[in-house]
Records
---
Amino acid sequence: MSKTNPGNYFEDFKVGQVLDHATPRTITEGDVSLYTALYGGRFALQSADSFAMECGLDAAPVDDLLVFHVVFGKTVPDVSLNAVANLGYADVQFKAPVFPGDTVKTSSTVIGLKENSNGKTGVVYVRSTGTNQMGATVLDYVRWVMVRKKDEKAPAPEEVVPNLPDRVDPSFISLPEGLDFSGFDATLAGSPHYFEDYDVGEKIDHVDGMTIEEAEHMMATRLYQNTAKVHFNQHQMQHDRFGRRLIYGGHIISLARALSFNGLGNAQLIGAINGGSHTAPTFAGHTIYAWSEVLEKAELASNQTAGALRIRTIATKDMPCDSFPDKQEDGKRDPAVVLDLDYWVILPKKTMAV
Amino acid sequence: MSKTNPGNYFEDFKVGQVLDHATPRTITEGDVSLYTALYGGRFALQSADSFAMECGLDAAPVDDLLVFHVVFGKTVPDVSLNAVANLGYADVQFKAPVFPGDTVKTSSTVIGLKENSNGKTGVVYVRSTGTNQMGATVLDYVRWVMVRKKDEKAPAPEEVVPNLPDRVDPSFISLPEGLDFSGFDATLAGSPHYFEDYDVGEKIDHVDGMTIEEAEHMMATRLYQNTAKVHFNQHQMQHDRFGRRLIYGGHIISLARALSFNGLGNAQLIGAINGGSHTAPTFAGHTIYAWSEVLEKAELASNQTAGALRIRTIATKDMPCDSFPDKQEDGKRDPAVVLDLDYWVILPKKTMAV
Amino acid sequence: MSKTNPGNYFEDFKVGQVLDHATPRTITEGDVSLYTALYGGRFALQSADSFAMECGLDAAPVDDLLVFHVVFGKTVPDVSLNAVANLGYADVQFKAPVFPGDTVKTSSTVIGLKENSNGKTGVVYVRSTGTNQMGATVLDYVRWVMVRKKDEKAPAPEEVVPNLPDRVDPSFISLPEGLDFSGFDATLAGSPHYFEDYDVGEKIDHVDGMTIEEAEHMMATRLYQNTAKVHFNQHQMQHDRFGRRLIYGGHIISLARALSFNGLGNAQLIGAINGGSHTAPTFAGHTIYAWSEVLEKAELASNQTAGALRIRTIATKDMPCDSFPDKQEDGKRDPAVVLDLDYWVILPKKTMAV
């Protein structure tokens, strides 16, 4: 029996199957520092224990996207080692906050299967759940990937396609227990703009650009213990159609989020991710820019001091975003666009219900 | 109203104005490890809790320059976003030591303004103060920068130029409470040379060289949450006169300090920085070397076990320092010189007053 | 007197001499995170406090190789600053586990000297011991290096060549106190293969490859406070015969160990290192692959829940290991091989003595 992990092929998945993923991971202050060094985030709640305590928390919580990357990374060896393409994700809900010292693990349930007509591949839908050492859910999301069949003659499974929401209903957004923005210090947070100051339809150019180096995206992706080999092996990738190591899509999401501070500086937490597309590959040497559009605003019944903005953030490579590059006249996306992310962010409200 | 930060222009500053900067930052063991990985410092006091405890402290303090970079980084969005040039700093005094877990924030007071005769720019002088979560000052310094006017027709302010000291008076040097070098273990510290062993006028070639990579200086500068875009955006900088990302000057200071271990290994703390010039830009690929000269020696009334050396450290790019490159015969600086830093370091004394 | 460290030359060493090395180092969660970011290790015991607690420990121990690199790095300024070549190491025994917060220092005893017939160099044998802040030994090993004489006329010392074991006797392997694999969760650990599942003679291709960047190996080597200048100074190394910075051999060991997870995922600890050769230099841009062979299996009298596998791991550059590259027909090593490491790893046993 081979000792190496062959990964799962399409025919290995069954609807209802539960996959308990390796490796549990204690997230520490060291990870938080590296995350800052890799992206340069400046959101106050994650940056300073004292600020988080003024907002009712025990300490600065770990950045939501760092939690996402760690939880996600664990699914790769079991779900997407033989994947052809990562097709999408939906219903990404952040639940219990993670603090340094918490240990996170992930399990996934197969919730859908659909063989492609070519008989060579199929789409696997999984709901993945990250839990902490107390068993509380920290993150829950659906992902679907196209996976190769090992044996093309293996019979097609019964087709099950889950019904996925277009967006996370804002009433489902879970804020950290005790979070209270009623004494929010906007000066210290670095932005004068509260929930009420944003309008649906408003577009924001985040102005700044960040160039990516090979060492950075590889350190990030290893930090998340994500083992997808396309990110790490230049000797193999030189023969690929791009001839380059591909950058983990999550690295671009984190860069775009950090860049969005300039314009969304009070977006202290990500409430949920509704969906996202990595519309073009990125490589070392690319400079990432971003802009955002406010899609929707929602009050939060569970917290009178905060509101949720539904944001669409577009990231580009080697193209400033002052012209808000997006779909072109012919309906095609501008080729500089590399990410189109739809998510809820949480901001303090100016007019608090007292 | 635009949601992005336009920064302040020269006419936005008023003498006496107080700027409370974002973002507070908890400095952790993770930051300390990254700092070691980026520069390779080996000063014992910052490296080992046990060594620091033998010297009377509760734990290893955070490197003075890491504190400086974090405090400094916060001033960039408010003070120097529209700067043409960083002209200098003076009277840099390190006060309460910072330990992992402390949260630092910065505020600045405008202490001087001087419009340039071209009417397009002016010099802004600020005194910036970093404080910890207990409100104690950890760092205090003056910086002056040349800032663009937004509206060239804006009237010139009354000229106020602060009177700045050439050097920090050594009687102002503040050592960590409890610091006691009477049992100093020079073997463990890695240098047999005490305060008494250095002579004014002595020159030391620090021998070693360190080559800089893009990923390193960008990770460092993001760790400090310093957002100056010239360091990060190759897509924009390719059109600049150098065609390259500029390296944050503080990165060179930290490299020079780490290199200075070879010759100044017992310089356990920086007491103060008297002034410094970044005399030429540095780019990834440059190898940094350094040499130092002892300018002055001072006893410390507040601590009988330590003495202060006033040091001038010169860093060069792509040029070893065995010939002590400096001003040339024609009075011009050797073009390989990139940094000229004047500061006080604290060393244990061999002959302790008991 | 020059203030810089000249290092020791061959004639400076005496058999029996004790060298107490600078600089003590507190190993923290920050170092652990960086180690993960640099190599991407996924061994469960080091990754999660909760997993380590299920295995009877108080917390996740620091990776054995991170401890090795820190302990080793300290010996460089005193032992190998004037070395021509690092010839080998043997009898590397890991003792007390290191946990974040522990402070490590190193001292070495000269145990052998042998001048070379050319009268210009000699071989120095040292036994180096790393201890923690309680004085417990964490690591003990023998290394021998070829060191230059400063004065070729200095008389040759009496020749003393220590008798070194071919391998560490497995009865000497010291496991962390309390370690108990009787409830080992192989699913969470990421591998179904226990001690009993491996056969002597079995070969495992670890499949994955990892490309090295300059920033990565330099950050790693500085993290270990290893000052050997060949790793850092491109300005000097451009004139060397390779024209490149050499990568610290320990960086390759750590990469090979991380890659070995794919096939040896339950090898939770390194019990001892029997010996190793860095058979060719590696440079940034090289992609490292690895394969392993099981040389020997041993029960551990001190722990019924674990067994020891003696493993030989071969790492290559720019060459996949599916053909197990090794010695060629003419007896020469395949030129792609860069590392040949012989060591004991500790795995849980499936059939526990209850």
---
Amino acid sequence: MDSSDIERKRVVVIGGGLVGALNACFLARRNFQVDVYEAREDIRLATSARGRSINLALSYRGRQALKAIGLEDQIVSQGIPMRGRMIHNLSGKKSVLPYGTNSQYILSISRKNLNKDLLTAVETYPNAKVHFGQRLVKCNPEEGRITVVGSNKIPKDVTCDLIIGCDGAHSAVRTHLMKKPRFDYSQRYIPHGYMELTIPPRNGAYAMEPNYLHIWPRHTFMMIALANMEKSFTCTLFMPFEEFEKLRTSSDVLNFFKEYFPDSIPLIGEQALGEDFFLLPAQPLISIKCSSFHLKSRCVLMGDAAHAIVPFFGQGMNAGFEDCLVFDELMDKFNNDFSLCLPEFSRFRIPDSHAISDLSLYNYIEMRSHVNSWQFLLQTSIERFLHALMPSTFIPLYTMVTFSRIRYHEAVLRWHWQNKVINRGLCVFGSLMAMGGVYLLVSYISPRPLGYLRRLPWTGNRFFWNMGRISLQTLRSH
Amino acid sequence: MDSSDIERKRVVVIGGGLVGALNACFLARRNFQVDVYEAREDIRLATSARGRSINLALSYRGRQALKAIGLEDQIVSQGIPMRGRMIHNLSGKKSVLPYGTNSQYILSISRKNLNKDLLTAVETYPNAKVHFGQRLVKCNPEEGRITVVGSNKIPKDVTCDLIIGCDGAHSAVRTHLMKKPRFDYSQRYIPHGYMELTIPPRNGAYAMEPNYLHIWPRHTFMMIALANMEKSFTCTLFMPFEEFEKLRTSSDVLNFFKEYFPDSIPLIGEQALGEDFFLLPAQPLISIKCSSFHLKSRCVLMGDAAHAIVPFFGQGMNAGFEDCLVFDELMDKFNNDFSLCLPEFSRFRIPDSHAISDLSLYNYIEMRSHVNSWQFLLQTSIERFLHALMPSTFIPLYTMVTFSRIRYHEAVLRWHWQNKVINRGLCVFGSLMAMGGVYLLVSYISPRPLGYLRRLPWTGNRFFWNMGRISLQTLRSH
């Protein structure tokens, strides 16, 4: 496609949220005529934020996408680095589990500010325009025709060469694809809901260490807290709906927090806790998979519209941003040819989106339960040890997902392989330790050990001594 | 609920297909005011059948539902009994696999005639009415309000106490439930499509044995044929879409049939085959699961609207009819109280619908591939033998699903248990046979067998002789 062809091509992006706005930047950079239709009003003009949102954690994949459009530094400067998980035990004791090496961290980001910055970035391109308050009411994805309705209630028809659905988990574009034959789709609500609470600043400063993701893991439920730029923390309580329903009065809530999150009560404030808990009911969490992501060479889904995931790996926004980056890379590869790009995007991206969806569900169990177990700590220590030894061969799952662009589905395959290696290694190690124990015991009881053992008195001792030392080091290494 | 309360209650059934019409009969019998809204015109007046449909196989569950409204004998008299599968091998050799005992059979039924009879049955109730050509355009399931539009294009609002969505796999009622929070849903298209062909009567008679379900199993694809009352057969070819796409001309089709279904060519007719194959493209097959089936005490889904399944167990209609029967049984149990019936219907019926959905997918593999293997024939023989021995303890899967009302999910559990028992039994049996073989060999080679074997010369021979006889009988018993 030569440059004049590209300038004549019109791309419509449905949704001016994070993924929609970022995508508009990518496409505007390629000189397409880009129109973004957003149902809500311009959030830069809105006085109050509508609805709530789980805090965002920006990591490598999202940063790489922002870097590609030259926004990484600006966005990162407004984030708060989180270097690990800070586990709050029932007793109030806190312990740190680093996310990676000393130089690796994720960033706590304000969704609203990020969205504002991205919208402003779109508007720097003369060939891109964001139309606010314009709701999609009809969509003919096969022919590239849409109808939007604004505040004047008069439907407006728009034709274009490509429709990109970035309109979130409850995507209107996707509902039109669903009617087409052979479109696979699943939506699943997990039995747990979430509720947001706030830890206000204390004397103008953070009330807890800001550079960690705070977790109160309680096996069947958990609370987390992420720092905001204005020195407060946003806490999110994840819990089965039936447990939420048991808490009917302020005193129920207070008793529940006294039992499970006692150290958080002075931080949130007793009165605020009793009131804020009943401001909004617990919100549901949905997991959406679909296939394929495109229809012919006219329509494609990205972000939550293609793969809404639960928030427990902090990858929702990052996966959506990586969608835009992957699509941009394919546009390079296929010289802006939609008829080649779109099928390849589906083929390439669907296994990855399914993988991060499953990993996100898995990570809820890890966060709320495993982080408290010695097996998990042992496993983590061994992984960190092996990663230090063989940095490119052996990479902990969290590192692959959060600090690399290894394809999500490959990360899952490597993770399974690594677990197998560790488990086999532990078996061998355990057997050797047991044999060593027996040898030492026999040596201790009898001054003259059995004949065949006598042949390796010194080397044997030395070997088992070293094995023990290595294993202790491994345990201590985190 | 006393009888005058019931007579004041209004139930709206969306869809006048098989399940909708049957359901209307059940509800009219309970004296509710029943209105059925069907988007199409009255099929009893239509001159041509629109669309195609896979043949129906009526079995026990469906018959029990028809029996409850007094229609069983009438419907059964219009069906053609099928006593087993008739397998067509590549060489043209045919073999029979009975479905159950001599008295057990399923019935090949015309969808159109059954639907006509059911609609006529609805109209025998003075308190029930079917409104044809009335399409659902709006639905407020929480408040029991719907809007339908007829040929005059004027929307009509209807309020009622209960909305029952029996509007098939692409249910409009379900799309309204999907918008409600915590409604789980999945739709999956299998990679295979289907195409219908016809074997016309030969000299006014059936061209093949009518009392069997004919199968041409070819591992990755298959063709089946069911007899019609007018002496023809409807063949259905199930095959991956990519294989369908390879057949572009009449001669491609003919060559394909010569290679895989040679004995069917003279039956279908060479010319008809080449033409009919291109009348319609291969049709997709969808599998739909959702949860829950109801919303509050106002709306409930039944039949394909709740659980569209692939047709390979012949249970689509039977499961839908059993929905109506189960609901009717719950209405008895809870004295027509919707607020108790609806949640219980979801709780009770969802595991069963998920089970028959999975079984139907499994049975495709059994039909197109397993039926040709000696392991399957051995397994089937053992199952039949054990069933004859212990009729209530050991029941083959097909019998549980097709000839009983054992709950589908219980049938799956029992099937897994039975398979485990058979496999363990085969291990023991195999070991005994091997030991017997060794014993006989040793006896044959040496006139004086080893000392410890000499102790059981006669009983040993006798035992292994009997084991062999029993196993041969088992193999021959079907």
